[in-house]
């Protein structure tokens, strides 16, 4: 598998839509070992990708055109699981886990708390179960998880923290849940390398020309077991890549083969 592995995570906001744009050019240019997607918004058979050299894994939501995740992997996994084994949270296609000899890889699309925080309780329930799930796996071997976590952890992670306080993605509850996840033995890899980097975001509203003004949020992450801290090589946010309201984020890790 080579000494360094490259991982990409991207909320594509509809895989069929992004395939009509420059998805394949981006996919080929990034040339990752693992390409994790969120919000594929499709059912089985609605899109076919020709990705020579990659295994393709999809988890679809029961509801059409909603949620959904995928992983495209250059390396054959030992095992593949879908969901977190909690029926209440496993109908929306939010989680895929691939097991490898030295690590687990998870793509996750964390529920959005929604307008007026209508789904905050559901979201917090998911956060708690996902924390249990990742902590249990980490007892066996290190975990690398990535995706749209729908939370800006700290004020540095969004353009307008004051006006967005108590809005979905920047509530005290969601931020505290993410802190609890990190406290359980995990690393926010981008902040590991760039603790003070400002004005770097992974999502921008389609409204008000937010992306042109870089009025964004950092809500897409790679989070890894602390056991891997010494093997982390770099983390990047590809805010130059268009095609979705999110941009891809990247992690490179040494010595996973």
Automatic annotation (TrEMBL):
Keyword Hydrolase: yes
Keyword Thylakoid appears in the UniProt entry: no
List of residues binding Mg(2+): 11, 39, 148, 150, 245-246
Active site: 109, 148 (proton donor/acceptor), 246 (proton acceptor)
Pfam family, one: Exo_endo_phos
GO molecular function per UniProt: DNA binding; DNA-(apurinic or apyrimidinic site) endonuclease activity; double-stranded DNA 3'-5' DNA exonuclease activity; metal ion binding; phosphoric diester hydrolase activity
Record's cofactor remark: Probably binds two magnesium or manganese ions per subunit.
InterPro entries cross-referenced by the UniProt entry: AP_endonuc_1, AP_endonuclease_F1_BS, AP_endonuclease_F1_CS, Endo/exonu/phosph_ase_sf, Endo/exonuclease/phosphatase
Name listed for the protein in its UniProt record: Exodeoxyribonuclease iii
Lineage: Bacteria, Bacillati, Bacillota, Bacilli, Lactobacillales
């Amino acid at each position: 598998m080579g000494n360094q592995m490259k991982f990409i995570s991207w909320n594509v906001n509809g895989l069929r839509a992004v395939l009509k744009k420059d998805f394949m050019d981006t996919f080929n240019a990034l040339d990752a070992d693992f390409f994790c997607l969120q919000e594929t918004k499709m059912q089985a058979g609605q899109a076919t990708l020709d990705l020579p050299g990659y295994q393709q894994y999809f988890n679809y939501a029961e509801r059409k055109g909603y949620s959904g995740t995928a992983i495209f992997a250059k390396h054959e996994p030992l095992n593949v699981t879908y969901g977190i084994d909690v029926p209440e949270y496993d109908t929306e296609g939010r989680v895929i886990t691939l097991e490898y000899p030295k690590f687990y890889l998870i793509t996750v699309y964390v529920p959005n708390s929604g307008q007026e925080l209508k789904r905050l309780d559901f979201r917090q329930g998911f956060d708690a179960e996902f924390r249990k799930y990742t902590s249990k796996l980490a007892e066996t071997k290190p975990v690398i998880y990535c995706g749209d976590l729908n939370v800006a952890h700290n004020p540095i992670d969004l353009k307008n923290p004051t006006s967005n306080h108590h809005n979905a993605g920047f509530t005290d509850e969601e931020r505290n849940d993410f802190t609890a996840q990190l406290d359980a033995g995990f690393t926010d890899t981008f902040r590991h390398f760039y603790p003070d980097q400002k004005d770097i975001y992974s999502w921008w509203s389609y409204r008000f020309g937010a992306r042109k003004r870089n009025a964004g949020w950092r809500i897409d992450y790679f989070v890894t077991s602390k056991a891997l801290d010494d093997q982390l090589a770099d983390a990047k946010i590809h805010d130059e890549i268009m095609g979705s309201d999110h941009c891809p984020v990247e992690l490179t890790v040494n010595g996973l083969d």
